[in-house]
Every structure is written in structure tokens, then in C-alpha cells.
């Protein structure tokens, strides 16, 4: 069995994540090997997927990967699973631009997967049928097969909803519902769901969720819908096979990746592209470690450093060791939270300042307002750690902090939408608010690792 199902929402906030997580957990409890995926650029939900399923979750995003890349990522990671559960993004047809690039619907069609639509039943009855009818008929090429209804007031309310939908669409399977007032919200932060490493009560939450799904959802019906005989074909040329792989493998390049409560936002594909090129990933914690191990480059992703400013500032041993090695030429790439860590200081929400590494002479200030969000295509305005001048890559931004002051001579390495980004104070540093997806231009992996190789050979 190698089944697949997309869990879509009529809009954001209808319970799509709750039901996707619940289905993953409930089907895993049945003994199935569940492979999770996430539509779009989000890096928080996949963390929950990974913890619940015990398998890494991957982003399926055509803006980053293209259609062939989406199929490649899906096939490569679903082969050893009994069922793949793909959590959608926003509303079913919401994506980038007027063509809805990387919408849940587009991804479902790309991997030929049937769709289950989640709707919210608060303050509606028969009108729900009109909503579902619109979603089913908006795109005739979409294989919408089932519906799950959230926030249902009573068994009678569900009966009205089910009868209204099936009267108009007898081929749709109504798979059950979740009652309202179940307190199933995962705790949220200003960036969205809290990261896995801070979700101490996730196990209790998951068990409660499993119990509800086993009582109210037709799990056998979900499995039945997922049994698709539509085969996904993949273009083998979509694989990333860098020519320098043998050289990297021979030299045994090691990349330190910051992974702890403060830094944990990474696209899984980024880490695997580094591994595929022959590198060894060494996990480090700027919160807990006293020094950096012997490595040839460092990668610090995003996360919630603003929640651990005191701890990060107080770990002077690690900061001193890392800073010394970077000043000696160790390459380091940092994204969003990583940029904050490399800055001179960060002001928290109350205006209190904390000293960071001072590798990028800039002051970061936390704000209560979202500063920027969305897809970005960047172009290098000069040669840098990852890109050569004129090269392009794609990523995503989502941050509440801002750079309030830049001191000294800080170089900006790439641009987008008339904005300059990519800060460096040394040639071996690149820090930015943009979370780049490495598969959007695998040459940046090659450039990064060649810089790491050069550092290794220098004997620094």
C-alpha cells in the first residue's frame, strides 16, 4: 500500500492543521507508516508532522521546486510509506499571484492525489452545501473526494450538514466531524505555531486528538479515499547531482547546523541537499554548547531567538569561540533568527538590550507588527558566500523584528523588490531575513561547500 491524501481547508483557520495532525497520529497508531508533507513555504507545521510521524516532513512548493521538483520530492520520500498525508496551505485555491502558484489545489493535481476538504460549520447549516459545491466545481480537474466538518454543535447539526451536502453531491464522502469547544488549539506565537522543541504538551494533545478522531471520523473512509491508482511520473533530470560531490566526499566536509529551542526553522530539503553533496551535518546548540566542534562551515537558521535572548547572551563561551573562528575565516550562513544572533545586539519587546555576536554591526529590534511576509526571488548584486553576481534564488520571509541601526561598513549582497538584503561584514559571512530554499538554485549549495572546502584546506 502506498496511498496518498491531501488535507485542504476552505480557508485558513478552519482546523486543517488540527485534522492533518490527528489523521497522522491516528493512522500511525493503527500501525501504518505515515509520511507527512506540507504544501507551501511553512517551516513550523512540518516540525509537528515530524514528531508525530517519526519521519521527516517535506515541503511541496512549486514556487521553489517547479512541478518536476515537487514530484521528485514526493516520490523520493513516499516510497517506503503506507500512506502519505499532505497538509495544505491557506484555502484550497490560494497561492502566489493570479495563477495561484503552489496552492494546495495545484500541488494535489501535480502529485495526482485525492483531496479531503475541511470546512467550518460555525453559524451555518444547509448553506455549507453551497460552500462545498463551489469548491468541488471550481476546478473540474481537482479530485475532491471527501469532506470533514469542524466545529459542529451537535449530532443533529451534523445530520443537517451531511444531508445538505450529499443531496447535491452524492459522490462526495462525508467523513465525519469534530464537535466545537474541544480546546484543540495548539499554542501560538507571533510567528504562528510554537516550534516542536517547545511543545512539551504535544503528547497529551496528540492523545486527545486521536481519541476524538477515532470517535467522530471515519478513518477507514479516509484510507479508502487515499487508495489512488494514479501514478506520479518523475523526470530524473530534476535530481540534484553536483559535479563536485566526489571532491567534497573525499575531503569529508562537516557543516555545523544550529538546532535547539532558539534555532529550528529549516527546510528539510536544504539539509538533505547538503548531505547529498557528501557533507556531514553536525548539530550544535548556541544555547547549550560551550564551544563549536571542528567543522568547515556553519549554518544558523531561523527560529525564536527572541524568546531566549538572556540565555544566548549569557553563553559567552560559545559566542567567543564561534566569533573567533569566524574571524579566522570559517564560513557562516545565517537566516532570520540567525541574522539576529550575528548582530551586535537585540532589543526585546520591552526594549531591553542583549549583546549578540557583533559579527554584523547592526541593532535588531523586536516589534509587535509583522514587518514582512511572503515569497521572494533574490538576485545577487555581488559575489558572496552562496551566489555569484547575477545569480537568482527563491525563498520566503516572515519576521516581526527589524534592523533599526546599521553601523560601520556592512555590505549588502542581493536585492529583491527594490530592497537590498544579505548582510556581510566579512567575505565568509552572509546573513539575511530571507529563508532560501536551496533547491531553487542548487548552485548555492555548491558555492557554499566550495567555500567550506577552501577553509578546510587552508588549515585555519
Automatic annotation (TrEMBL):
NCBIfam families: cobB, PRK01077.1. The record marks 435 as: Increases nucleophilicity of active site Cys. It comes from Halanaerobium saccharolyticum. CDD domains: CobB_N, GATase1_CobB. This is Cobyrinate a,c-diamide synthase. GO terms for biological process: cobalamin biosynthetic process. It comes from the Bacteria. The active site is at residue 336. Belongs to the CobB/CbiA family. It holds the Pfam family CbiA. Keywords: ATP-binding, Cobalamin biosynthesis, Glutamine amidotransferase, Ligase, Magnesium, Nucleotide-binding. PANTHER family: COBYRINATE A,C-DIAMIDE SYNTHASE (PTHR43873:SF1). Comprises of two domains. The C-terminal domain contains the binding site for glutamine and catalyzes the hydrolysis of this substrate to glutamate and ammonia. The N-terminal domain is anticipated to bind ATP and cobyrinate and catalyzes the ultimate synthesis of the diamide product. The ammonia produced via the glutaminase domain is probably translocated to the adjacent domain via a molecular tunnel, where it reacts with an activated intermediate. Residues 5-191 form the CobQ/CobB/MinD/ParA nucleotide binding domain.
Amino acid at each position: 500500500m502506498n496511498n496518498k491524501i491531501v488535507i485542504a481547508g476552505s480557508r485558513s483557520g478552519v482546523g486543517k492543521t488540527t485534522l492533518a495532525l490527528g489523521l497522522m497520529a491516528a493512522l500511525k497508531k493503527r500501525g501504518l507508516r505515515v509520511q507527512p508533507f506540507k504544501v507551501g513555504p511553512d517551516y513550523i507545521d512540518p516540525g509537528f508532522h515530524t514528531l508525530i510521524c517519526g519521519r521527516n516532513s517535506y515541503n511541496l512548493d512549486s514556487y521553489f521546486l517547479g512541478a518536476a521538483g515537487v514530484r521528485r520530492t514526493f516520490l523520493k520520500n513516499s516510497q517506503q510509506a503506507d500512506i502519505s498525508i499532505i497538509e495544505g496551505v491557506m484555502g484550497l485555491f490560494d497561492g502566489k499571484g493570479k495563477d495561484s502558484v503552489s496552492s494546495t489545489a495545484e500541488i494535489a493535481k501535480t502529485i495526482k492525489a485525492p483531496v479531503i476538504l475541511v470546512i467550518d460549520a460555525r453559524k451555518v447549516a444547509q448553506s455549507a452545501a453551497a460552500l462545498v459545491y463551489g469548491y468541488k466545481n471550481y476546478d473540474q480537474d481537482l479530485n475532491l473526494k471527501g469532506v470533514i466538518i469542524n466545529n459542529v454543535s451537535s449530532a443533529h447539526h451534523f445530520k443537517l450538514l451531511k444531508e445538505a451536502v450529499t443531496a447535491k453531491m452524492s459522490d462526495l464522502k462525508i467523513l465525519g466531524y469534530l464537535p466545537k469547544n474541544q480546546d484543540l488549539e495548539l499554542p501560538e506565537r507571533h510567528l504562528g505555531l510554537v516550534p516542536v522543541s517547545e511543545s512539551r504538551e504535544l503528547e497529551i494533545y496528540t492523545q486527545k486528538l486521536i481519541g476524538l478522531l477515532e470517535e467522530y471520523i471515519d478513518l477507514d473512509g479516509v484510507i479508502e479515499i487515499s487508495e489512488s491508482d494514479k501514478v506520479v511520473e518523475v523526470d530524473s533530470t530534476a535530481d540534484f547531482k553536483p559535479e563536485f560531490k566526489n571532491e567534497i566526499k573525499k575531503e569529508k566536509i562537516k557543516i555545523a547546523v544550529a538546532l535547539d529551542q532558539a534555532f529550528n526553522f529549516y527546510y528539510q530539503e536544504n539539509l538533505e541537499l547538503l548531505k547529498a553533496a557528501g557533507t556531514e551535518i553536525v548539530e550544535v546548540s548556541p544555547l547549550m554548547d560551550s564551544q563549536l566542534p571542528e567543522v568547515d562551515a556553519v549554518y544558523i537558521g531561523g527560529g525564536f531567538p527572541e524568546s531566549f535572548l538572556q540565555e544566548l547572551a549569557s553563553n559567552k563561551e560559545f559566542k567567543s569561540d564561534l566569533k573567533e573562528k569566524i574571524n579566522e575565516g570559517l564560513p557562516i550562513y545565517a537566516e532570520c533568527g540567525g541574522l539576529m544572533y550575528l548582530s551586535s545586539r537585540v532589543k526585546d519587546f520591552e526594549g531591553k538590550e542583549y549583546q549578540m555576536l557583533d559579527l554584523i554591526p547592526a541593532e535588531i529590534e523586536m516589534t509587535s507588527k509583522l514587518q514582512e511576509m511572503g515569497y521572494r526571488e533574490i538576485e545577487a548584486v555581488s559575489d558572496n558566500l552562496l551566489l555569484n553576481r547575477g545569480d537568482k534564488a527563491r525563498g520566503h520571509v516572515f519576521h516581526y523584528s527589524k534592523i533599526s541601526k546599521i553601523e560601520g561598513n556592512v555590505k549588502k549582497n542581493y536585492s529583491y523588490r527594490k530592497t537590498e538584503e544579505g548582510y556581510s561584514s566579512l567575505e565568509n559571512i552572509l546573513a539575511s531575513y530571507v529563508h532560501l530554499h536551496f533547491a531553487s538554485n542548487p548552485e548555492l549549495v555548491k558555492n557554499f561547500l566550495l567555500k567550506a572546502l577552501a577553509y578546510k584546506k587552508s588549515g585555519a
